[in-house]
Structure formats: C-alpha cells, structure tokens
Design a protein that fits this description.
Number of helices: 2
Number of strands: 21
Distance between the termini: 66 Å
Largest sheet: 5 strands, mixed
Structural class: mainly beta
Radius of gyration: 23 Å
Oligomer: single chain
Mean pLDDT: 80
Strand content: over 45%
C-alpha cells in the first residue's frame, strides 16, 4: 500500500512540473541561451551587440512597427505597434517563449535602452532609430537569419508615420497649464498622494522637492528628472495621451500622485 501512495505522489509531481511555469535552470556546461533553444532555432549568428538570434518560421514570428510624434516639450515620443507579441517585464531572464519578451532601442546604431512597453521618449535631434524584438532570455527573435526589427530616421521634418513631410511639427497647445507642487520627506509625501484630473492637451508642471537624491519618473510618458536634496526640481510636459499615469520616485519607490487624463 505505501508503494502505491509513493507512486501517486511522484506521478503528481511530474505532472505539475510538465505543465508548470517555464524554468530558467539548465544543465552544467550550457549557457542559458543554449538551454532554452527549444523555442525556435538558436543560431550561431549574433545581432552585432552580442545577442544570439533565435529563429522562428515567418508565420509564427512577431512583427514590429514604429511611429514618432513630436513632443511639444522637446524630442520625440515613439510608439511601437507589435503583432504576435506582448511585453513581459515580469519574466525577463526566463525561458524564451514565442510571442513574449521586450524590445531594445538602438539610437544611431548604439544600444541605448530596453523597452518593456510600447512608448518611449527620445531626445531632440536627427537620429536613426532601430527597434529590435528580444525574447525573455535576451536572444533576438529572427526570421530567415535576420533580426525582427524596424528602423526609423528622425529629422526635423519627420511625420508621425515616419515619412518625410514639408510641414513643421505642431505648435504647443493653447490649453492652459497648471502647476503641482510636491514635497517628499523620508517616506512621507505632501500633499498626500491622490488623483489629479487633467484634460488631454493640458500643460502640467511638476515641482518636486525631496530630502535625498532621487529620480522623478512620469510613467506612460517616460519623462524623468534628477532630484537633488533640498533643491526644487521642475518637470513640464503636455499630457497628450488619455489614461491613468503614475508619478513616482525611483530610489525611494514612492508614488507621488496619479494623473488622470481624459
């Protein structure tokens, strides 16, 4: 009778392992990239930045497009449209699973940022942007030996679709602005965190004072500001996208406020 019980327990454990979450463990003597090679075909070729290519059939591979929109406060807001793919920051470093991962931004050929969402801000200037899709294990999704990527050339006359246009970027909105003043002392935020209602196109100035060095971050707009102890820092932006966006500090991990743009 004990033998039957033991067999049942082992069988249950094996079943749970087969249907459970993808593991990042691999056998000695293999790299993590080589260990997860069952998801597509791991190629010897690299993308030029040290990341190996992981090939999929064209019908199963993800796709990406990029658009650029001038930001009235300077620079560009770029937006990625992906197909057969979703951003999975929660599983970065894990096994390569088709349809999951993150993007890397190359500015003028230089690996600049890792993207875990569709929006990113790029400073002003003429640049060539390359957006490349990676798996969770940092290999590059590929088709026919070529990385899944898209390229966009930014110039002062770039239109939102990435094609050149003689028209100038839109002028700043005439919607009146407002200022929000916040003070951070330790883990205390004054005024207490709440939701701030804004109209799309409204100009917002955040004036933040902290008692320690930190970084202010406006989610969804990817705008950041370095904060020095005791010195008020000011960040101004135009809220041109609707939704709920958190304003937080990176080092202390505090949510200062939430912006509700309608």
């Amino acid at each position: 009778m004990p033998t039957v019980v033991l067999t049942a327990v082992v069988t249950a454990l094996l079943a749970a392992g087969c249907g459970g979450r993808a593991t990042t463990h691999h056998k000695p003597g293999t790299t993590h990239q080589e260990a997860t090679g069952g998801s597509g075909t791991l190629l010897a070729a690299e993308d030029g930045a040290g990341h190996r290519l992981r090939q999929l059939p064209a019908a199963e591979a993800p796709a990406v497009r990029v658009e650029a929109r001038p930001d009235t406060e300077g620079g560009w807001n770029i937006h990625l449209t992906v197909e057969r793919f979703r951003f999975t920051p929660e599983s970065v470093g894990g096994a390569a699973i088709p349809g999951r991962g993150h993007a890397r931004l190359l500015v003028d050929g230089k690996d600049t940022a890792r993207l875990y969402g569709p929006w990113h801000h790029v400073p002003a200037g003429a640049h060539t942007l390359t957006l490349r899709l990676h798996a969770d294990d940092h290999t590059v999704w590929a088709v026919d030996g070529r990385p899944v990527e898209t390229t966009l050339r930014l110039t002062p006359a770039t239109s939102p679709t990435g094609t050149t246009s003689p028209s100038s970027p839109p002028s700043p909105t005439s919607v009146p602005g407002r200022t929000l003043t916040l003070t951070v002392t330790g883990t205390s935020v004054q005024p207490l965190p709440s939701r701030v209602e804004l109209r799309k196109g409204e100009r917002l100035t955040l004036r933040v004072t902290t008692d320690r060095a930190d970084t202010l971050h406006v989610h969804g707009y990817d705008r950041e500001l370095s904060l020095r102890p005791g010195e008020p820092g000011t960040l101004t932006l135009t809220v041109d996208r609707t939704g709920l966006f958190e304003v937080e500090t990176h080092e202390s991990g505090l949510v200062l406020t939430q912006l509700v743009v309608r």
